[in-house]
Design goal:
Layout: E1 6-18, E2 24-36, E3 40-44, H1 51-58, E4 66-71, H2 76-81, E5 85-89, H3 100-110, H4 115-128, H5 144-156, E6 162-166, H6 174-191, E7 194-198, H7 202-208, E8 211-215, E9 222-227, H8 241-262
Helix pairs in contact: 3-4, 3-5, 4-5, 7-8
This protein binds adenosine-5'-triphosphate.
Length: 268
């Protein structure tokens, strides 16, 4: 039997930030997590529990204190160099002087794609995010939701097998946000990418995720992992009893997190 392909493994990871004056912040404690290829995982927990830190460690934007992280079986550094993942954060981070198309093509340009191949790929992505008519617009001519779509298209440009998304919809109004969630579900189905998604929104985590990973206050630990097995993720799901059950399960896990964490409930 072949083993299930794994996108990310996090094994007994601790992260301690040390200031020059010797002060320590214990951000993550004994965190272990496995993300399968194509799986959608959300990280949720109180502010300061280390969600962004964990994401940054996977992305090789910071180094672990102890433990081990692998991305498609490689070190995070090797995976970064191989462009194995795309990143999208809360701020779309588009270059204002470049057109929508030129923003999407930026990583391809940096990595030496030929102009014809870049155009072919950006055409596909513009179609995918529904902004083909806006290819020549500048970011300041777009709404917040449209900018975020461009940022997501840019993160998908090199067809990564993994997307790291840190509150990508955090700055959007509720209607745009739900619309973007629907689009992300469709994009994931189309691309088959695994996703690690940081959010503060319980319904967002439940709607999007195969598993919701609940973290305790600092030092961040995983206190519970909630499996969600919905047959489809469409507008009807938002009104479904199973969806509300998921929301309640995550809410209970979050509220119970402090005591569970203090009692050292086993990580999953
Ligand atoms: N570079 C750093 N130096 C020192 N401390 C840091 C650094 N980065 C993060 N921290 C601390 O580590 C802890 C975890 O921060 P992190 O940003 O990962 O939390 P978070 O769960 O993403 O929070 P939020 O939900 O508010 O975005 C916090 O106490 C934060 O102050």
């Amino acid at each position: 039997m072949t083993a299930k392909p794994v996108a990310v493994t996090v094994t007994n990871v601790d992260k301690i930030f040390r200031s020059r004056k010797g002060a320590e912040v214990h951000a993550l404690s004994d965190v272990s997590l496995e993300v399968a290829a194509g799986e959608f995982i959300s990280l949720i927990g109180p502010s300061g529990c280390g969600k962004s830190t964990l994401m940054r460690l996977v992305a090789d934007l910071d180094g672990i204190t102890s433990g081990e992280i692998t991305v498609f079986g490689k070190t995070p550094e090797k995976a970064r160099k191989d462009q194995d993942y795309g990143i999208a954060f809360q701020q779309a981070g588009l270059l204002p002087w470049r057109s929508v198309r030129a923003n999407i093509e930026l990583p391809l340009e940096i990595h030496g794609w030929e102009p014809r191949d870049r155009k072919e790929r950006s055409d596909e992505l513009l179609e995918l995010i529904g902004l083909a008519d806006f290819a020549d617009h500048k970011p300041d001519q777009l709404s917040g939701g449209m900018k975020q779509r461009v940022a997501i298209a840019r993160s998908l440009a090199e067809r990564p097998r993994l997307l790291l998304m840190d509150e990508p919809f955090g700055a959007l109004d509720e209607i745009t946000r739900e619309h973007m969630q629907n689009e992300l579900v469709a994009l994931c189905q189309e691309t088959g990418a695994a996703v690690i998604f940081v959010t503060h929104s319980i319904p967002e985590a439940v709607f999007l995720s195969d598993r919701v990973v609940v973290m305790s206050p600092r030092p961040g630990r995983i206190t519970e992992v909630i499996d969600l097995d919905f047959s489809s993720r469409d507008e009807e799901l938002r009104e479904d009893a199973a969806f509300y059950e998921g929301v309640t399960a995550v809410r209970n896990a979050l509220h119970g997190g402090e005591t569970a964490g203090a009692r050292g409930v086993e990580n999953r």
